[in-house]
Amino acid sequence: MASSRAVPNLAFRRLRGQRSPAEFAAAVRRAAREIGEQVACDARYVGRVESGEIRCPNYAYERVFLHMFPGLSLTDLGFLARERVRGRAARAATGAPAPPTPFRNDEESDVLRRAFMTGGTATVAAVSLLRGPAAGAAGRGGGPDPLGAIPAPRAGGRFGESEVAAVEEAVRRIRLLDDRHGADGLYARAAGPLRSAYALLDTGRATRQSTVDRLHSGAGELALSVGWLAHDSGRLEDARSHYAEALATARVGGDPGLEAHAFSNTSFLARDGGRFREAVRAAQAGQRAARHLSSARLLSLLALREAGGWAGLGDRSACEEALGRAHTLFGRGRSDADPEWMSFFGEPELEFLEAQCWSLLGEPARAVRHARRAAALDDPHFTRNLALYRAQLAADLARDGAPEEAAAAGGQVLDLLGDVRSTRIGAMLAETARVLHPHRAAPRVAAFLTRRRPMVPHQGGG
User: Fold this and answer.
1) CB-count burial class (<10 Å; 0-12, 13-18, 19+) for 321
2) Alpha carbon 232 to chain centroid distance?
3) CA dihedral sign, ordered 403, 394, 373, 305
4) Closest by CA position to 417, among listed 457, 444, 379
């Protein structure tokens, strides 16, 4: 949506008034939450609009802006009419023929393009690195990229089963590698498959609508997977952007499963960021999206997300009610309708999420009981989760007045971190070390603090 002949949007600038770009962006995000939308608006986005670089917003932003300024149209806000940017008018202006098999609507390619572009400067930098001759080797001296390659559209811009399968396989590989190794080493490399998937959707076409739908869902899941890698590696704003655009993609495609997944991740991120009211709302919205999907396990996870938000708000009664629902739904067992991405969600994850709730509610003893059950996981396919659960146990033991046992659990996490790179886990250990510091005279505590000291949590970047 950029233009080399951008015309400043003076109408939009006037509507901002005396507010700074950052203040106005915060107002946009608040307005989005009022109507159940998710947009990752920041000062940079406001600047792009006012400079004329964004000539027409995607549909999510359009709904938010029209909510903020009732009675005004897009053109009143200084934007071009949508048909002048894309669609028939744009093709007529260039003399280009209409594509024989268009996507569902004009919004789709715009949303998918922005789902990649809003990933932040770190994502753009990663793409430039992946273009180099050593991209597939990823610094390991050659060999195929373990994330796999997504082919470009065929002659005439067409795509089919092989391209769709490559996108779906990239999602599976990212999840597998993340389960075993954590996110820090994967995030930059995942930008390549993400960009390729969106290129297929943005420029390609298929003869079957079912193929388009599969690619649409696959690209949305890939956006969520890359968003999760950003989340776990400490790039929270990048994660927020990916999750928000995945949600917009789900709504455009009418995909309730993808929408529920996007809300689940959004709730998780909001809880981690201390935005507990948002965590509750997102989890509840996810439950509404998932209510007809016949997956009790999905509803159980979303109830746990809601419980985490209530715990952060200090509402014990609401938290316990949500935990009760989560256990009841979990007890109904697995079903064929459970999404593939939920392979991680077993009893250890349920116990871990409940431990987090009790920790937030200031009951470390109850948190320890649940964290112990989570830390009993013994599955080599989920090394990252085992490190995470033991990090939670270490933190809860430290708060519960068991410093030497906490240090022992923290040492077990350090043993696993040779294979696992997760900024989130590193930050949990840093907090545990802070709580344990007054007990540094104890031998086990001293040993843990000495081992952990060289670890400096990664704060984002390229």
Assistant:
1) middle
2) 9
3) positive
4) 457
Assigned token pair, 348: 């250890």
Strand partners, 205: 158
CA atoms lying within 13 Å on the CB side of residue 298: 28
Please tell me the distance from the alpha carbon of residue 334 to that of residue 158, in angstroms, as a whole number.
38
Let me know: does 396 contact 375? Beta carbons within 8 Å. no
Give dist(CA 90, CA 424) in Å, integer. Answer: 46
Contact residues for 260 (Cβ-Cβ < 8 A; gap 6+): 286, 287, 289, 290, 293, 298, 302
Nearest CA-CA partner of 159 in 98, 203, 95: 203
**Which segments of 361-418 does DSSP mark as H helices, in order?**
364-375, 383-399, 403-416
Give the helix/strand (H/E) hosting 278.
Answer: helix 276-290
Residue 288, pLDDT score:
96
Q: Are 350 and 326 in contact (CB under 8 A)?
A: yes
- Please say if the pLDDT value at position 308 is more than 90: yes
> Which of 129-133, 314-318, 356-360, 437-441 is predicted with the least confidence, judged by mean pLDDT?
129-133
298: enclosing H helix or E strand: helix 296-312
Quick one: pLDDT band at residue 148, thresholds 50, 70, 90?
A: low
Q: What is the DSSP string of 314-356?
A: T-HHHHHHHHHHHHHHHTT---TTS-GGGGG-SHHHHHHHHHH
Residue of 384, 378, 383, 354 lying closest to 366 (CA atoms): 354
Q: Is 124's pLDDT higher than 50?
A: no
Question: What is the SS3 assignment for 440?
Answer: coil
* Burial class for 288, CB neighbours closer than 10 Å (0-12, 13-18, 19+): middle
CB 95 within 8 Å of CB 89: no
Provide the 3-class DSSP secondary structure of residue 118: coil
Amino acid letter, residue 190:
A
How far apart, in whole angstroms, are the C-alpha atoms of residue 143 and residue 128?
A: 19
Model confidence at 156, pLDDT cuts 50, 70, 90, reads low
pTM above threshold 0.85? no
